Amino acid sequence: MEVERISGLKFHKKQDVAIVGAGMTTFKRRLNETGKELSYLAIKQALEEADMDLSDIEMVVMGSAPDTFDGLHMKGEYLLDGSGGSDRPYMRVFVGGGTGVFAPIAGYWHVASGLADVCLVVCEEKMSSSHPHPQSAFKYIWDPILDRPLNPNLIWIFALEMNRYMHVHNIKHEDIALVSVKNKANALDHPCAQLAEKITVEDVLNSEPMALPVRRLDVSPPSDGAAALIMVAPHIARQVTDNPVWVTGVGWALDTTMWTNRDLYFPRYVAEAAKMAYRMAHITDPRKEIDVAEPYDPFDYKELHHMEGLGLAKKGEAPILTREGVTARDGDLPCSPSGGLLGVGNPIAATMGVKAGELYWQLAYRAGKRQVAKEVTTGVCQAWGDLMQVGTVMVMSNKR
Amino acid sequence: MSVGKKDISCPPEAPGTPLKDADITEKKVTYVEDHPDMRYAWTAGQAISRFLNELKEGRLIATKCNKCRRILFPPRMFCELCYKPIDDWVYVKDTGTVQTFSISYIDPDARPLEEPIIVAVIAVDGASKNMAFMHVLGEVEPKDVYIGMKVKAVWKPEEEREGSVTDIKYWKPMEK
């Protein structure tokens, strides 16, 4: 059947969407609090910033990564009470590591569609329940027939991707290590940070080999933590704040699960997601129009990879921008001013706090010591996950 | 709800109660332990069953889509781009090219390995561009591996093959 396509109707929405509050817990390797308690703590902070009560919340979106970490199914339901979701429309969304930006995208659907005027988005992760190390749970994302008989470790695919990226663009490990150095130093100004430290490129290159080219300091740590965001309609935003941050574009895309059939040097899925978000936000030249970025950085090379996917750098150019200081907090295109996953920690879904949350704080000029030097209007945040196949992108602006 | 305010610290941050590994091992915190023991039997499906049975015979098989003209490897029953059934089964060679590789010092549980293993994405000869799969390399020193290296499968003896990707012991460099 041929379906007639009507052009110009895409991306219509009932109302604009603003973020008016965000909160997060500290990120740590192990926290005593349960997932419910962590969610509660993050939500209380976000409600306080927005000056709201739970009774003001109409709908709730919860994001959390694989149930295997918790050894518990129906995790969304298990976390319901801590997530403030009882007796109201509630849903859990999940695209692996991409959840940190996918959950606010789902929050955007709720408000932009007009179904809700106030939507709470909460992301929680408790990786420490899996013993002795959460890596054992990652075993179960591999294909059981083609991959698992080879006894793979999840780090393998990142090492394979990093090596391919380095090979195609002739990039040295030294240039990639600069991202780790920058982000861990940025995290010194983040009160929630797990691995904030001053390190050097040599420290990264001499750290313990995991799956070469990936070494210990190329990788973000597993963490426990939670983060929350409050997304509202314009007439609510007006009542609660003078500085709302508007969500001007969202995008998401997945590439084939058969990851060995892709050329790993370029994240096509991020490029597709970014294309959608930029189109919605009327951005034609992201390098010029984006003032601050929070690309997903679970590995140091990933920030570079994602900058290229997001169109913030040409293919192979991201390491050069990093070396020249363009992506530093006082640079022309600050990337991961929060300290990112490398510095603040990587509680998978809860990284929303350092991606979407940080972008909100930067654009609201509320990032304190982490506030970037340049004047900011528009920013982009992005996450990535599943079997390295999903890109989730959100563009925000402090101008409506 | 009220207008204004915003004099709270930023980021609004809740400290939480950090624990050390020792708090668990020395039982300083209250916790409950369990070891779920789940068993699964994954059927290999229409396409991969044939693929695994061909491995027993020491052959690699792929499928072909006549619309986009791709030779799909590992084989599948439908072309995910054209979204139609595949048209044919074709054998591909047990030689290929290293697309990318890693030298792994850790096992699946992140425990250190005594001897590193070399894992690679290998594009097999005879299939379309980028049609590759993951396997391990052998008979080569880690420092000698490079992207673009031609490799050949080293099969287990026929009587030891069991219809698994491990029927190929490893891939070794073709040139000496």
Notable features of this structure?
heterodimer, A: 400 residues, alpha/beta, 14 helices, 11 strands, 32% helix, globular, B: 176 residues, mainly beta, three-stranded antiparallel β-sheet, extended
Q: Mind explaining what this structure looks like?
A:
The complex is a heterodimer of chains A (400) and B (176). Chain A has helices at residues 35-50, 75-78, 99-112, 135-138, 155-169, 173-186, 201-206, 234-240, 268-280, 286-289, 300-309, 318-323, 340-344, 356-363, and strands at residues 18-25, 59-63, 90-93, 118-126, 209-212, 214-215, 224-232, 245-254, 292-294, 378-385, 390-397. Chain A is an alpha/beta fold and 400 residues long. Chain A has a 9-stranded mixed β-sheet. Chain A has a two-stranded antiparallel ribbon with strand order 5-6. Chain B is mostly beta strands and 176 residues long. Chain B has one domain (45-173). In chain B, a hairpin with a 5-residue loop joins strand 7 and strand 8 (112-124). Chain B starts with 12 loop residues before the first strand and ends with a strand. The model of chain B is unreliable at 1-5 (pLDDT under 50). The chains are: A alpha/beta (400), B mainly beta (176). At the A-B interface, strand 1, helix 1, helix 5, strand 5 and helix 8 of A face strand 1, helix 1, strand 7, strand 8 and strand 9 of B.
Count of discrete structural domains of chain B: 1
Shape of chain A: globular
Strand content of chain A: 15-25%
Largest interface: A-B, 79 and 61 residues
Radius of gyration of chain B, in angstroms, nearest whole number:
25 Å
Averaged pLDDT of chain B: 89
- What's the average pLDDT of chain A? 92
How big is the Rg of chain A? 20 Å
What oligomeric state is this? heterodimer
* Proportion of residues in helical segments of chain B: under 10%
Hey, roughly how much beta strand do the residues of chain B contain? 25-35%
Q: Return residue spans of chain A where pLDDT drops below 50 for at least 5 consecutive residues.
A: none
Structural class by secondary-structure content of chain A: alpha/beta
**What is the third-level CATH name, the topology of chain A?**
Peroxisomal Thiolase, Chain A, domain 1
Our count of domains of chain A comes out at: 1
Instruction: Characterize the biggest β-sheet of chain A.
Output: 9 strands, mixed
**Helices and strands of chain B: which structural class?**
mainly beta
| Order of the strands making up the biggest sheet of chain A | 3-2-4-7-1-8-11-10-9
At CATH level 2, the architecture of chain A is 3-Layer(aba) Sandwich
- At the first level of CATH, the class of chain A is Alpha Beta
